[in-house]
Amino acid sequence: MQHYAPIKSRKVDDVDLEKLSARLEGMRGRLADARATLAGATFSGQSDDKRITATVNSAAHLVGLKIDPRIFRLPDSEGLAEAILLATQRARDGASTTANDLLQSVLGPAVNVDKLNSGEDIEDMIKSAGRHLSTNEGPNER
């Protein structure tokens, strides 16, 4: 039976594993908080004339649409469609910006929700988040 000397340091390649483990746990908690924040969040956008309000959830799905009845006094189906699309896009932009801000506060500035949703190769984002984790303390760890 071979005996090994006790490990004096919990470091691998100059990385303190206990600190890294604590940081990962902190990050996990902050990600859970961000997910909970986004889960029930809705985001609204309006047309330029403020007569149409579109509301989306954090997944950018349309969950509400309010149309001021005065808009029907001068029927213009193309204008109405454009205004609905504009209001919906503004609401989606709000959802995307909020999700990006929350994720970047935890994983670093290279993380981008739009890239994640588009199916782009996210390998660089993952590497950057790893570098961020190993070189920066998160906002709740300072």
- Total helices: the number is 4
The CATH homology group name of the domain at 35-107? Nucleoid-associated protein YbaB-like domain
The gross shape turns out to be elongated
Oligomeric grouping of the chains: single chain
Strand content: 5-15%
Q: Which CATH architecture of the domain at 35-107 would you pick?
A: 2-Layer Sandwich
Helical amount: 40-55%
Structural class of the helices, strands and pairings? alpha+beta
Which consecutive residue ranges, at least 5 long each, have pLDDT under 50? 138-142
Q: Describe the biggest sheet?
A: 3 strands, antiparallel
Summarize this, please?
By secondary structure, the chain is of the alpha+beta class. The protein is 51% helix and 15% strand.
Helix-strand layout with pairing:
Blueprint: E1 11-12, E2 15-16, H1 17-39, E3 42-46, E4 52-57, E5 62-67, H2 77-107, H3 113-118, H4 123-135
Antiparallel strand pairs: 1-2, 3-4, 4-5
Question: Would you write up a description of this structure?
Answer:
With 142 residues, the chain is α+β, with helices and mostly antiparallel strands. It has a domain at 35-107: Ybab, Chain: A (2-Layer Sandwich). It contains 4 helices and 5 strands, in the order E-E-H-E-E-E-H-H-H. The protein has helices at 17-39, 77-107, 113-118, 123-135, and strands at 11-12, 15-16, 42-46, 52-57, 62-67. The strands form 2 sheets. It has a 3-stranded antiparallel sheet with strand order 3-4-5. The radius of gyration is 23 Å and the shape is elongated. Mean pLDDT is 79; it is low at 138-142.
Please describe the structure with a list of short key phrases separated by commas or semicolons:
three-stranded antiparallel beta sheet, Ybab, Chain: A, 4 helices, 15% strand, 142 residues, single chain, disordered C terminus, alpha+beta
